[in-house]
Design brief:
577 residues, six-stranded antiparallel β-sheet
Length: 577
């Protein structure tokens, strides 16, 4: 079974499975297709995180594809450029790309297919064309003035007729197709499958990709700050990074083990929120009721406050153990009252003083916008979001991967490569002493946060969602509805969604809305009115606007497989047989 955020990626994954490939072959092939068909949501210059288990080893593992800050990305340099925040778009926001290296590592270590066969799907769609989804054109339209006035290479690629593409028009990305073919050529002389993959990894990190990117971005160009700057990324930064596997961080909830990334991502937010809520009775955990929605929003505020105060590459020793302890969860649970909190309330795990980020109030116009990974450019705002892949195969391999970054609107297109670099460094602070301060060689705290579920030590599900700061929030709703409410996976994905914006945003310009709650209207007038009475500052988002989840599942007892996908936007798709 396969489920992704775009039907062509799902079809690709399913094709690989039908031809005998395993879940890792399928996920990798789908991941490269997503670079082509959802270029406003991810790209080869971006990043990813994954979580998986193999048929021979059910121990959950994390696929770490988050590149670090370049060696030249110092607070002093950015401050010297007149910046108070890392820009949301432009080369100074670029971390070292991690997506391609991570996909190739997963394929080498756990896949079975040749790289040429895996990349054939993406090369075909890039070279021969595919019908573009409407949101690609909408995104380009929002940044059209930036492209034509400043990022001319992006205009040449994405507006070849002088306008954004319309939904259903065939677009081709020949430069990216050629990039993938050159990676294959780099491995043509290697002696075996793994050697060919490793040669492609080296070529990306040490060869023409790194050279072209570093050279092109040395020219000053417009950033979201409204000022022009040169990037600091160099070939040596590409070469120094390697994707890796890490043990997952886990917690128990209602008999299920939830596996996530470490605190260099926001994964433990979901674990913290579940542990806070675990002390409440089932009837108090239904997100479709006013009481349940209130508890969800308040628990998330507390977990997200801890994220911003304590998470990051430089998290203090022992802090995560305290954050995930039953005693700390109980302490945090006691802070949930009958009324909505309008405060930023991080805890003091082990007595440690929290980092207090700058708290800038969200503007009235932007209060409803917290539904993706935003990057603001020129005078307009567009949303570079994320995509997702879930695959489970007949043998019991299961994987969830959330690729993002490198959006077509992240930075100027590198013409020889056919893509641009990402903007993940905007998640770091230009203040010293924070666990997530901008630090050369350290990973920015990413929002990418897929999930693996296990029961009795055996994998039973994988899921994830686009959505930036909302990813774990929407996954929390899914878990409460499936593990407590008895919903099927598809019912949980379809159910009305909500999230809080009462935390400093992870993306430029990093504002927050104290007490902010964004809800789908389908939650119902009575529930929404009661949330407002409790003090939540509610924004109605429409009936089918929030949540982007997909999932796959496996019953270890029967071997029965399942999959579910998001109906919102009529773009996600689940398939299998």
């Amino acid at each position: 079974m396969s489920a992704t955020t775009h039907w062509l990626a799902t079809a690709t994954a399913q094709s690989v499975l039908e031809r005998g490939g395993n879940a890792f072959d399928a996920a990798t092939a789908a991941g490269f297709v997503l670079h082509v068909v959802e270029p406003h949501l991810n790209g080869p210059g971006g990043d990813l995180t994954g979580v998986f288990a193999t048929a021979t080893d059910p121990t959950p593992q994390v696929l770490m594809g988050q590149g670090p800050a370049p060696a030249g990305a110092t607070i002093a340099h950015y401050r010297g450029e007149g910046l108070d925040l890392v820009p949301g778009a432009g080369g100074l926001a670029a971390a070292v790309p991690g997506s391609v290296d991570a996909w190739l590592l997963l394929l080498a270590e756990h896949g079975t297919w040749e790289l040429a066969d895996v990349l054939a799907y993406a090369i075909g769609y890039a070279r021969d064309g595919h019908p573009v989804v409407g949101r690609v054109g909408t995104t380009i339209e929002t940044v059209a003035q930036l492209f034509t006035e400043h990022w001319t290479t992006s205009a040449q690629l994405w507006m070849p007729n002088g306008r954004p593409p319309r939904a259903g028009e065939i677009i081709r990305l020949p430069a990216y197709a050629r990039t993938l073919e050159r990676l294959l050529e780099a491995g043509s002389g290697a002696g075996d499958r793994i050697g060919r993959i490793e040669a492609a990894r080296r070529e990306f990190k040490e060869g023409f990709v790194a050279r072209e990117a570093a050279e092109f971005l040395r020219t000053p160009h417009r950033h979201s700050s409204g000022t022009d700057h040169a990037a600091v990324i160099e070939v040596a930064d590409f070469a120094a990074f390697s994707a890796s596997f890490e043990p997952a961080v886990t917690a128990e909830f209602r008999g299920t083990t939830i596996a996530k990334t470490g605190p260099w991502g926001q994964g433990p937010v979901l674990l913290q929120a579940l542990m806070i809520l675990d002390g409440l009775p089932d009837e108090a955990l239904d997100p479709s009721t006013a009481e349940g929605a209130h508890h969800v929003l308040e628990a998330l505020k507390l977990a997200l406050a801890d994220r911003d105060a304590h998470y990051g590459e430089a998290i203090a020793d022992g802090v995560l153990d305290v954050l995930l302890s039953p005693e700390y969860a109980r302490e945090r649970r006691e802070l949930i009252g009958k009324e909505a909190s309008l405060e930023f309330r991080p805890g003091r795990p082990g007595g440690r003083e929290p980092f207090l980020p700058p708290l800038v109030i969200e503007s009235e116009e932007g209060a409803a916008a917290g539904v993706g990974e935003p990057t603001v450019v020129l005078s307009g705002e567009t949303r570079g979001d994320t995509c997702h892949v879930d695959v489970v195969d007949r043998w019991g391999n299961i994987v969830a991967v959330t690729p993002s970054g490198g959006w077509l609107q992240s930075s100027p297109t590198i013409p020889e490569l056919g893509f641009c670099l990402g903007s993940r460094l905007q998640m770091t602070w230009l203040e010293e002493g924070a666990p997530s301060s901008l630090t050369p060689g350290e990973r920015p705290r990413t929002t990418l946060t897929p999930t693996l579920l296990l029961r009795d030590g055996k994998p039973v599900g994988a899921l994830g969602s686009p959505g930036g700061d909302q990813q774990d929030q929407w996954q929390l709703l899914y878990l409460l509805r499936t593990l407590v409410g008895g919903y099927s996976s598809q019912e949980a994905i379809d159910a009305p969604a909500l999230h809080t914006t009462s935390m400093p945003g992870s993306f430029w310009p990093r504002t927050w809305t104290p007490g902010g709650a964004v809800v789908e209207d389908r939650l119902g007038d009575d529930v929404i009115t009661e949330l407002e009475r409790r003090g939540h500052r509610v924004t109605r988002a429409g009936d089918w606007e929030l949540g982007r989840l997909s999932s796959v599942g496996r019953d270890p007892g029967t071997g029965l497989l399942s999959a579910a996908a998001n109906p919102r936007g009529a773009q996600g798709y689940a398939a299998g047989r």
